[in-house]
């Protein structure tokens, strides 16, 4: 299991792309946070309000989710990163397994929580 961390220009864009990912069952959830960002862009320091979304999904879904985000994202260079989840409660993992399709559209019968080893896949 992973978080996919992505930054959007505003809530409207974050909602739109999150809805697409949920409808395609690529993620189980998208947690949104409004943040104040400072960054270098084209040799200038910029400051903006942005929306960060943490998506919850399987590690194997990262590339498909990333491609789907890139297809709809307004930024020239969006930030999309995966963050490995070392441990998660078993009931949530089972919900993820029942809800989210692995490898973009196929249920994975081999998906099971590895609670002894913190490296959940």
Would you mind describing this structure in some detail?
By secondary structure, this protein is an alpha+beta fold. The protein has helices at 11-23, 62-72, 90-99; strands spanning 2-8, 29-41, 44-57, 80-84. The chain has a four-stranded antiparallel β-sheet with strand order 2-3-1-4, with helices on one face. The chain has one domain: 2-Layer Sandwich (Alpha-Beta Plaits). 28% of the residues lie in helices and 32% in strands.
TL;DR?
By secondary structure, this protein is of the alpha+beta class. The chain has one domain: Alpha-Beta Plaits, CATH 3.30.70. Helices cover 28% and strands 32% of the residues.
**Structural class computed from helices and strand pairing:** alpha+beta
Just name the CATH architecture: 2-Layer Sandwich
Helix content: 25-40%
In total, the number of domains comes to 1
Distance between the amino and carboxyl termini: 5 Å
> In the CATH hierarchy, what is the class?
Alpha Beta
Uncertain parts:
108-121
Layout of helices and strands:
Layout: E1 2-8, H1 11-23, E2 29-41, E3 44-57, H2 62-72, E4 80-84, H3 90-99
Antiparallel strand pairs: 1-3, 1-4, 2-3
Give a quick set of tags describing it:
121 residues, alpha+beta, Alpha-Beta Plaits, four-stranded antiparallel β-sheet, 4 strands, 28% helix
């Amino acid at each position: 299991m992973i978080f996919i961390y992505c930054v959007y220009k505003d809530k409207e864009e974050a909602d739109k792309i999150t809805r697409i990912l949920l409808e395609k069952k690529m993620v189980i959830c998208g947690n949104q946070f409004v943040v104040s960002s400072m960054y270098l862009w084209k040799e200038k320091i910029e400051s903006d309000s942005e929306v960060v979304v943490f998506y919850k999904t399987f590690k194997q879904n990262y590339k498909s989710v990333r491609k789907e985000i890139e297809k709809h994202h307004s930024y020239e260079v969006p930030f999309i990163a995966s963050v490995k989840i070392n441990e998660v409660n078993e009931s949530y993992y089972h919900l993820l397994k029942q809800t989210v399709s692995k490898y973009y559209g196929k249920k994975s019968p081999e998906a099971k929580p590895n609670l002894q080893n913190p490296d959940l896949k």
